[in-house]
Design a protein that fits this description.
It is a single chain. The chain folds into 2 domains: 1-50, Arc Repressor Mutant, subunit A (Orthogonal Bundle); 60-195, Tetracycline Repressor, domain 2 (Orthogonal Bundle), CATH 1.10.357.10. Helix 2 (31-38) packs across helix 3 and helix 4 (52-72) crosses helix 6. It has helices spanning 9-24, 31-38, 42-48, 52-72, 93-112, 115-126, 135-149, 155-175, 181-195. The protein is mostly helical. The relative contact order is 0.12.
């Protein structure tokens, strides 16, 4: 019997892994559960991903790509090659307050949307604590976010902004609380203003 050509199978397996993790957590992830979700033979999952860590790396990388795409499409950043503020001057005055306001609106939209997607991303992100194979991919997420924010402010301030946004997201997710836009905006403004000092 001829083997069926299925160029999207690897992508479907990654999508299935994300679905399994969203429903049952990382503890529910196995080649068998992913194969069933993707409706592919069990051998397909092990062919494309020899270990669960390889599958988790691919899943986290997909979440990273989705997050970076959300940042890029948010309107916060000029297109590649566009002239933007130079390093160190983007955080000053109205531009700095504007950046804090825009980041707050971005976080507000995330929390107004499907909370499960944010929980999934952070579950994978935090899995790097116990799974060293995920650490470089988690670091990629931070580096991408800092690189994008560095187009609006200096790199040190960008790192501080990413750290604060991460902390806010984790607190909201872990406590089951609500996103406090006013507080977040004030804290982001302080970080941006501190970059000018």
């Amino acid at each position: 019997m001829a083997r069926r050509y299925d160029p999207d199978r690897r992508t479907r397996i990654i999508d299935a892994a994300l679905t399994v993790i969203a429903a049952d957590g990382i503890a529910g992830l196995s080649h068998r559960t992913v194969a069933a979700e993707a409706d592919v033979p069990l051998g397909s999952t092990t062919y494309h991903f020899a270990s669960l860590d390889e599958l988790l790396v691919a899943a986290l990388r997909r979440c990273n790509e989705n997050f970076v795409q959300a940042l890029r499409s948010s309107g916060l950043f000029a297109e590649e090659g566009d002239a933007g503020p130079g390093e160190g001057d983007a955080g000053q005055g109205a531009e700095g307050a504007g950046l804090a306001e825009e980041l707050t609106r971005l976080l507000d939209r995330w929390f107004a949307g499907e909370r499960g997607a944010i929980e999934l991303e952070y579950e994978l992100y935090l899995a790097a604590l116990r799974r060293p194979a995920l650490r470089p991919v988690a670091a990629e997420w931070t580096a991408e976010a800092v690189a994008l924010l560095s187009r609006r402010t200096d790199p040190e301030t960008a790192r501080a902004l990413v750290a604060l946004m991460d902390g806010v997201c984790l607190q909201v997710l872990l406590t089951g609380g609500t996103f406090d836009a006013a507080y977040t905006r004030v804290m982001l403004e302080r970080i941006v203003a501190g970059g000018d000092a």
